[in-house]
Amino acid sequence: MVRNHARRITGGVLATAALAGCSAGTDGTPYPVETAATAASQSAKAAQLPQRPADLPVQGVDLCGLFPQVELDALKISSVPRPADGADGPVCVFDADKAEPFHGYEAGLVAADLDQWITGARRKNSLTTAPKAVGGYPALTSYRAATDPADCTTLVGVAKGKTLTIRAFPITRGGFTQPQLCEMSAHAADVALQTLKARN
Fold it and tell me: What is each CA distance from 57 to 85, 109, 143, 158, 161, in whole angstroms?
C-alpha cells in the first residue's frame, strides 16, 4: 500500500511538471519551455520588425564616441567612457554616478543579425523581448523579468550581420523600474544610431 501511494504521488508530481510546461534556469528560476505556440509567437515578433532603410557603416566605429558631449551631459554621464571586454567582444561603459540613483550604460556591436535574438541561436526563454523601431531601424528590447530589475538592452539591426546593443543598468539597487530602464536604453540607442547615421 505504501509503495502504491508513493507511486501515485510521484505520478502527480510528474503530471504537474508536464502541465506547467516550465523548466528551471541556472539560478532555479522557472521559465517557459519551447513549444509550437512559442515558436509561432517568436516568428510573429520577427514579422513585426520594420525593414532596415539602409546598412550603416560600422567598421572601425569608436564605441566610446557614440555619444556627443552634449548627449553625455544629458545622459548624466559623470566620468570618461571606458573600454571593456564584453561577452560578444569589445564594449564601452558609461557611468552616471554623481547623483542618485546611480546607473550606467554599455554599448557594443555584435556580429549577428537581429533575428538571432528572436528565432535564432541567441534567443533565450528566460528573456523577455519585444520588437520596436529605433530611428526607423528594426530593434528589440530585451530583459529578464524580475522584481528587482537588473538591466534592459536595446538591440538595433544597423547592418546585415551587425547589431548595435545599448544596455542600461542600475548601480543603485531599486533605483529604477523595468520600464524606466528600457526607456533609458531605447533613448540612448537612438542617440547612438544618429551618430552612426552621421558617419555615413
Answer: 22, 12, 27, 8, 12
10: how many CB neighbours lie within 10 A of its CB? 10
Q: How many Å apart are CA 187 and CA 200, to the nearest integer?
A: 21
5-46 pLDDT, tens per residue?
444 444 444 444 333 444 444 344 444 444 444 555 666 777
Full-model pTM: 0.78
- Among residues 36, 57, 39, which one has the least CA distance to residue 47? 39
Grid cell digits, residue 47: 514579422
Distance, in Å, from the CA atom of 86 to the CA atom of 102, rounded to the nearest integer, reads 21
Q: Which of 83, 108, 70 is nearest to 189 (CA)?
A: 108
Q: What is the pLDDT of residues 48-103, one digit of tens each?
A: 888 999 999 999 999 999 999 999 999 999 999 999 999 889 999 999 998 899 99
145-154 long-range contacts, CB within 8 A, separation 24+: 145/178, 146/178, 148/173, 148/174, 149/176, 149/177, 149/178, 149/181, 151/181, 152/178, 152/181, 152/182, 152/184, 152/185, 153/185, 154/182, 154/185, 154/186, 154/188, 154/189
